[in-house]
Amino acid sequence: MYLSALEAARAELDRYPDLAGIRILGPEDLMGGDAYGLWQYGAGSTEMDKNLQYLAAVERSADAGTALAGFAIHGYGKDGVSSAGASSQLWDWWANGWKASPAPGLPSGVAGFSSFGKPSWMTETSGESPAWLASSQGSGGFPDEGAFSIAIKIQQALTTGQESGWLYWQLTDGKPSSDADKETLTDATQLANAPKLVAAKHFFRYVRPGAQRVAASVTGGASLLASAFELGSTLTVLLVNEDASLASVKLVLPSGSQSASLSAVTSSDGSLWQPSAIPVTSGEATVPVPGYGVVTLTSGAGASDGGLPAPDAGSSDAGATDGGLGDGGGAGSTGGAPVDGGAGLKATGGCGCGQSGGLTDAALGLLLALWLAGRSAHSASKSRNSRCWAKPSFR
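Above: the chain's sequence. Below: its structure in token form.
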């Protein structure tokens, strides 16, 4: 049924010149919370196919494969309401599938979306508590349910999950929210100061359309997540500390970097969106990352203007004309597959969500989404060594 509908929709769109440019993403099912949630719930009359089983069907149909310009998944748990996506294992299965069966009753040799050479977007999620720190395990548990967890989920999606787009369900519904309201990033009273919006803004504001993710490796600390992005002469580095203690991170910039300082924005519980300058000496910087905190660092042309550099002149349309889903675009790849925890992170794909300041710009940014400027099987590798190394010490 899904394949027939997909092929019919593509054929109908192609009949009209003004509609033929519309691209289709699918299957856009929820992530769930385990391997079954990515393959199949139930059996017999109660069977419900899930994301990877849809992909397997698409792989068997040339017409369906042609009809899909890319893939989409929702970052919800099994109930379709609570948020998922902080698990690197789930993202790895979605991107790369699995060779051996990960659970009883599931087949072996299942392919992930990356085998198709097309991009994937996380197109909807919500469900976190409004506070910076909240845990699904109750008091004292790991903060996997508050605003801080949004930073983890975006980080995991863009690295291990190789996602090229990440969208939240709602910016705001226009009224003050309560602790029970988990579907929006902010409300009518907190505006740009809402912890959930601030966590997302660490990515939305600084990882711009056309940016390309480059290698970022972490040594000496499994609790530090790192990612790095380039757009023109601007380098953006994201650091997320999953430990409760402050991490003092030694950051080694790419060879040839001329930056004398890095612009930094830091957020943690009770201290949101704190700007600072981090000095650079001989290509190295020491960056404090608070416990359960997020730091965004920028250098280059975009560092002084909120990380809003002009599109890279060498990146053709940077995804502007076709949402980044075409064969064109200039974003390249550092090659290889991502590894969780920032250890040797290398993946294809750029992202960029244009959010800058107030609610009007934020809304625009969420609509712009994270446009991809190239795709894994069709983008050239970077010709220069663009690596960031981060070595944390916790105290």
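The chain is about 20% helix and 25% strand.
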